[in-house]
Amino acid sequence: MYNYLRPIKSKSSIVAVIIVCLLLFSQYTFAQDTSETTPQVGTVQKIGDVVLIALPAVTLGTSFIIGDNEGAWEFTKGLVLTEAVTYGLKLGINKQRPDRSNDNSFPSGHTSTVFHSAGYIHRRYGFKYSIPAYALAGFYRCQSDRL
Questions:
Q1: Are residues 55 and 129 in contact, defined by beta-carbon separation less than 8 angstroms?
Q2: Looking at residue 4, what DSSP letter applies?
Q3: Interhelix angle for 69-93 vs 43-65, to 10°?
Q4: pTM to 2 decimals?
Q5: CB within 10 Å: which end of the chain, N or C, has fewer?
Q6: CA angle, 64 as apex, 58 and 70 as ends, to 5°?
Q7: Is the pLDDT of residue 31 over 60?
Q8: Would residue 67 be called left, alpha or beta, if left means φ above 0 and alpha means ψ between -120 and 50 degrees?
Q9: pLDDT digits (tens, 9 = 90+) for 112-129
């Protein structure tokens, strides 16, 4: 009954968790700071930042809880590729944000992360389970358009 409480013993599972944690927190450390103005952080943006961390973490955690270690590893590899392409494009394109806070406007790393999570759920577990994830990702995308 409590199989989901058993400790994670697979080395690949532990590596997957570490990689995902590092990628999620790297979103805040790699931004180039060419601030001309200080961005305004409102409640909706704070909720979006929670979604940015929570959606991938819950996606990966759920894969582990249901015993889908192969899926968790797929998610991790996909997230690594998504982040690599996104940050490669950011550094190559170097487009300034509308609020002039830095030069990493395009493509959105936050949006690519949350939609990767929603797309993974859709492909791996079906559309029915991905509806809440797409709703959160869509909410995040809509609120980030206002920034």
A1: no
A2: G
A3: 140
A4: 0.68
A5: N
A6: 115
A7: no
A8: left
A9: 899 999 999 999 999 999
Residue 46 φ then ψ, to 5°: -65, -40
Q: Which of the two residues, 39 and 124, has the higher pLDDT score? A: 124
Rounded to 5°, the CA angle 126-131-136 comes to: 135
Residue 10, pLDDT score: 63
N residues, the chain: 147
Q: Nearest-5° angle of CA 136, CA 104, CA 27?
A: 50
Q: Tell me the CA end-to-end span of the chain in Å, nearest whole number.
A: 46
* Contact between residue 122 and residue 134 where contact means Cβ atoms under 8 Å apart: yes
Amino acid of residue 33: D
List the structure tokens of 95.
């487009």
CA distance 5 to 3: 5
Vertex 143: Cα angle to 35 and 140 (nearest 5): 105
**CA 67 distance to own-chain centroid:** 21
Residue 20 and residue 41: Cα distance in Å, rounded? 25
- Would you state the pLDDT for residue 51? 85
Residue 11: the pLDDT is: 63
For 116, the token pair is 């990767």
Dihedral angle of Cα 63, 65, 68, 69, to the nearest 10 degrees = 90
